[in-house]
Amino acid sequence: MRAHLDLIKYKVYAELSAEAARTFLGILWWVIEPVLYMSVFYFIFGVLFQRGGEGFVYFLLVGLVVWKWFDSSIRSGMVSLQTNAAVIVQVYQPKFIFPVIVVLINTAKFLFVMLLLLLFLLVSGKPASASWLALLPLISVQCVFIASITSLFATVIPFVPDFKWVVENGLTMLFFLSGVFFDISAMPENFQVWLRLNPMAVLIDNYRNVLLQGQMPDWWQLFWVLLFSSILILAALRVFNRFDRIYPKLV
């Protein structure tokens, strides 16, 4: 296990360094890309359609930053075995490390962007509160959730490559059902029940409570997300172990 952890740490560092070196702007692109991404949606929903009202900028930015981490990790992580096919067919490595590496790389970028978001909130007059300390467990729960979904999809894609198109379209639909652009608590009670079955909707709502409302997260909700994620991770690990020697033939 120690060897696996060292390998993951080395690969994450190597990938981040290589990615920063591939572009002229280097690490600055980690900031520019999400800023451009968020600016487009703010212009469409905040300026063009004039949705939201006072405080909508903060509301939208929190939702987009949290969603972007999830979306980018899933899209790149679910095909991580195919992306690393040259390595997999030549040298034996546990297959679960590849989606984990992708998740950790995107987590590093997310933490960088989250730091900028916190600075933006402070500069804009949003006072820091004790609730911000809850960001650590909140981010940890989301990281486990992202790793569970990414790993589970990564076990399936080598067998059914076209499944990635289903996932990508599903992510687009989920994007508009996760409360990125609206407040779930303002929806009718019967809709809230269904919307909160989506872990991302629960997580985004809790991030906003922590950062914008100065409230602690709903620990019970986070517990259920963590429990659900743990079950998915165990299922993914079992599939990886079951087909460990078959994946090199598929990728």
Q: Indicate how many domains the architecture comprises.
A: 1
Q: Categorize the overall geometry.
A: globular
Are there runs of 5+ residues with pLDDT below 50, and where? none
- Gyration radius from CA atoms, angstroms: 19 Å
Helix content: over 70%
Number of strands: 0
**Chain oligomer state:** single chain
What brief labels describe this structure?
globular, mainly alpha, 12 helices, 251 residues
Outline of the structure:
This protein is an all-alpha fold. The chain has helices at residues 2-22, 29-48, 56-77, 80-83, 85-88, 97-123, 135-156, 163-175, 189-195, 199-211, 219-242, 247-250.
What does this structure look like?
It is a single chain. The chain is mainly alpha-helical and 251 residues long. The chain has one domain (2-250). It has helices at 2-22, 29-48, 56-77, 80-83, 85-88, 97-123, 135-156, 163-175, 189-195, 199-211, 219-242, 247-250. The longest helix is centred in the middle third of the chain and has 27 residues, at 97-123.
Layout of SSEs?
Elements: H1 2-22, H2 29-48, H3 56-77, H4 80-83, H5 85-88, H6 97-123, H7 135-156, H8 163-175, H9 189-195, H10 199-211, H11 219-242, H12 247-250
Helix pairs in contact: 1-6, 2-3, 3-6, 3-7, 3-10, 6-7, 7-10, 7-11
